[in-house]
Design brief:
The chain is α+β, with helices and mostly antiparallel strands. The chain has helices at residues 89-107, 144-160, 164-175, 216-236, 281-286, 295-304; strands at residues 41-44, 70-75, 114-121, 133-139, 179-182, 186-189, 200-204, 243-248, 263-267, 270-272, 275-276. Helix content is 28%, strand content 18%. Helix 1 packs across helix 4 (216-236).
Length: 307
Amino acid sequence: VAYASHRQNRTFLPPKDYSPLAVTRSDDFPTEMPPGDYEVAVFENLFPSFTEAAHGSPELSVPTEPAKGVCEVIVFTQDADASLASLPIDRVRLILEVIAKRSRELGERNDVKYVLPFENRGVEMGVTLHHPHGQIYAYPFIPPEPAKMIAQMKTHFERAGRGLLEEMIQNEIRGEIRMIARSESAVAFIPVCARYPYETWIAPIRPVAYLHDLLPEEFESLALVLKETLTKHEKLWERPQPYLMVLYQAPYDGLAHPEAHVHFQIYPPYRTKDRLKYLAGTELGAGVFINDSLPEEKARELREGFL
């Protein structure tokens, strides 16, 4: 648990013309974005959960450390009305390349062990700024979810001699029934272990540990599948789809991770057009998710574009 009480008073859902992520248009109202022509911008979060400036720690009955680390914001476009799905392929690819570069540079720091890029979209996901943007968190430790994921991947790799996600992807390609989109070097599918009805995974077919390990043509292929998949989510109910999208990579711990396979996981919170998937007793209390639908059904809806 990281304590960041200064975040309580951060900017909350301002009009788009007064958003701190909008381009500065007047000296009387400067934003975080300078005037000028640019495509993607990255800068440190003004309300970080982890920061180099962290010092001291609360006196508790358990070990604590200062919340060192880095939190960055990545602005996808100057257009406040756009979305990641609506951007052209070359912009989506550029965003992936920027995320890869920032991940690598942050991962080279001695005080960083894991880099987690993500996008929260929609008020249902707690978004406080509607302008299209994502975030990059660089942690001084390996967070619990990626740690469990890497542990499972490592166990499988040692037993089977191939990556766990690599094997899942090949099974999905052969079976096709849970596939949503595919290009030459990337795939999108609803996994057999989906916890949310429309949970979607997007990955390069070739197993690589980090996003910056992709070849130029693989960046292009991944951008195509990412845009197509997000567009299918947008068209499902003909309205903006809220979601959390996370990029999982190998830790930056100085070790080799042949078991790791970089990929996106997308969690849309709705189980139907007007009903949210709430996490309650068995999910939060036991860690056992109850999914009200089959992955094959939801994959067909996204793939074919109707309910």
